[in-house]
Amino acid sequence: MTSRAKSSIAVTLDPGLVDYVRSRVGDDDVKSLSAYVNEALAARVREERRRRKILDARLARAKEAADHDRVDRMMAHVQQQLAEVPGFQEQEAR
Q1: 37 near 21, Cβ under 8 Å?
Q2: What's the CA gap between 60 and 69, in Å, rounded?
Q3: C-alpha span between 65 and 12 (Å, rounded)
Q4: CA nearest 78: which of 66, 65, 92, 64?
Q5: Residue pair 39/50 in contact by the 8 Å Cβ criterion
Q6: What string of DSSP letters covers 3-58?
Q7: What is the pLDDT of residues 24-63, one digit of tens each?
Q8: Least confident of 12-16, 36-40, 58-62, 84-88
Q9: Which of 4, 32, 72, 85 makes an SS bond possible with 25, Cβ 3.0 to 4.6 Å?
Q10: 3-7, 14-18, 45-49, 69-73: range with highest mean pLDDT
Q11: Which residues of 27-52 are buried (b: 16+ CB within 10 A; e: fewer)?
Q12: Backbone torsions φ then ψ of 28, nearest 5 degrees
């Protein structure tokens, strides 16, 4: 994370979470409590970004590996079948 000035916000935590964090950092150490929560959120952001990179890489590989001609043929066939369904065009326009 960057080292810009930190923002102060009020949050509501579940009592069990507060008890757990206090058992780790001390009952009245607000700075340690803040640092603990900040690090937990930063870890969550890092994990979400890591997972997003993995997902994006997998999607890119799948897209590269796809047989686009076959997909186009299949979609054309689906469109042909839908065109033969009575009243489908009216339903689609709604």
Answers
A1: yes
A2: 17
A3: 47
A4: 92
A5: no
A6: -SPPP-------HHHHHHHHHHH-SS-HHHHHHHHHHHHHHHHHHHHHHHHHHHHH
A7: 887 677 788 888 889 999 999 999 999 999 999 999 999 9
A8: 84-88
A9: 32
A10: 45-49
A11: eeeeeebeebeeeeeeeeeeeeeeee
A12: -115, 15
Residue 37 to residue 40: CA distance in whole angstroms: 5
Cα–Cα distance, 13 to 61 (Å, whole number) = 41
The residue length of the chain stands at 94
Q: Quick count: other Cβ atoms within 10 Å of Cβ 62?
A: 9
Token code pair at residue 73: 């043929």
> Tell me, what amino acid is at 35?
A
Q: How many CA atoms lie within 13 A of 11 on its CB side?
A: 13
What is the CA 72 to chain-centroid distance, rounded?
A: 30
Which amino acid belongs to residue 28? Answer: D
Question: Are 16 and 9 spatial neighbours (Cβ–Cβ below 8 Å)?
Answer: no
Tell me, what amino acid is at 80?
Q
